[in-house]
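FIELD: query
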Amino acid sequence: MQRTMQMVVLAVVALAVIGLGYQMIYNPIGLLTRVLFIAGFVAVIFFLYRLYLAKRFGTPIMPKRQGPSRSQLKKAKRTSTVKKATPSRGPNFFKATNGTSAVKKKAPYPKSAIKKRADHNFTVIEGKKNKKKNRALF
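FIELD: result
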């Protein structure tokens, strides 16, 4: 069944390519008018759909998109795991290296393990937790 559907789709695509080539050679103006008519029809349907959504939800017909919203930026900042690498301004920042590259000492624990975990906003729902459900009723 799968193989026959593939063959049918392939045959339809092949006939479409042959017909498009024939139209391009023998009737290019007719092909152009047909393509413009289809594009115009799709544009009208799209505009009516946007108008319907604008009336239903009270949004503008063509909204302006100039970047992410504030809530999206806050969420991205909250969920971002990549931190910017900034040079440390500690006491050794201004010392000369005497022409050799400085060797950094490794911390005994990675910073991600030391970092305090954020509290979660879980809510406890009161009730009888140990009550057995009667599975015969389900």
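FIELD: remark
Helices lie at 2-26, 28-57, 70-79, 111-114.
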